[in-house]
Write a structure and sequence with these properties.
Length: about 260
């Protein structure tokens, strides 16, 4: 069973690596006939658009993180500290974008954005990404603030600190590991998002997943594999960082 699980996980990755260095590979040969890096040069050439697409993806993901945290920090604090009516329903509402098929939703979003001038803009793509990123940002931010002992804030208030200063100097630094974890989740979600980027941004906003899709649909498997590796590297790096920030006590409070 472990062997089958390892094959299911690492088999596609090995195939991806082979396609990235394959010069010639066609049926019925099990392995590439020729190896080389000529396709890497094509991807990173001025006409390959890989650097531009990667830069656009990172920029969109960064803006998505900033917008998501700007909304999630006050929302997470309020949901963790205040006795809000229908708190569970509010948390559940952030799952709505994940509850419906993406395709019909984004077709209608694209139609609406076209009418108000947001279609084909970075702002429109960021708004779409934020709707998905808020699921991670708000839920993890709520858990991070809920894991902080209220008595620490009360001690700061008793010492003369205002509510804002107690939040800034006590709660926010203690919640920062959880907020960093939510930022990484949002960044990775935005970096890999395709459907919304395609319907709202293409062809004016060209992200790396769109470049990968175009190459794969055109039968350019080498270029698609190299683009996929470019997406895979930051994902693995950020997941390793995420392990340092997301603590067990924060995880235990998610959804509470």
């Amino acid at each position: 069973m472990l062997g089958a699980l390892a094959f299911a996980i690492f088999g596609p990755l090995c195939n991806l690596l082979l396609w990235a260095v394959a010069e010639k590979w066609y049926f019925p040969h099990a392995l590439p006939l020729e190896y080389g890096f000529s396709f890497w040069g094509r991807v990173f050439s001025a006409r390959g658009n890989a650097w531009e697409a990667l830069g656009t993806s990172v920029m969109v993901a960064g803006l998505t993180v900033l917008a998501s945290l700007a909304l999630a920090i006050p929302a997470g604090y309020a949901l963790a500290r205040l006795k809000l009516p229908f708190r569970a329903l509010i948390l559940l509402a952030f799952l709505i974008p994940q509850a419906f098929p993406n395709l019909p939703v984004y077709v209608n979003v694209a139609r609406l954005f076209y009418a108000i001038g947001l279609n084909g803009t970075v702002a429109g793509v960021v708004i779409v990404h934020v709707t998905h990123g808020l699921v991670y940002a708000v839920w993890i931010a709520t858990a991070a603030f809920a894991a902080i002992d209220r008595e620490l804030e009360e001690a700061a208030r008793a010492a003369g600190a205002s509510a804002l200063r107690a939040f800034r100097d006590v709660s926010l630094p203690l919640a920062m590991p959880g907020l960093m974890a939510s930022a990484i989740f949002v960044f990775l979600e935005s970096l890999d998002e395709f459907t919304g980027s395609f319907f709202v941004g293409a062809p004016d906003v060209n992200t790396l997943p769109l470049l990968l899709y175009t190459a794969g649909a055109g039968g350019n498997y080498q270029i698609a594999s190299i683009s996929a590796l470019l997406l895979l590297v930051p994902s693995i790096a950020f997941m390793l960082v995420l392990e340092k920030f997301l603590r067990a006590d924060v995880l235990a409070r998610i959804g509470q």
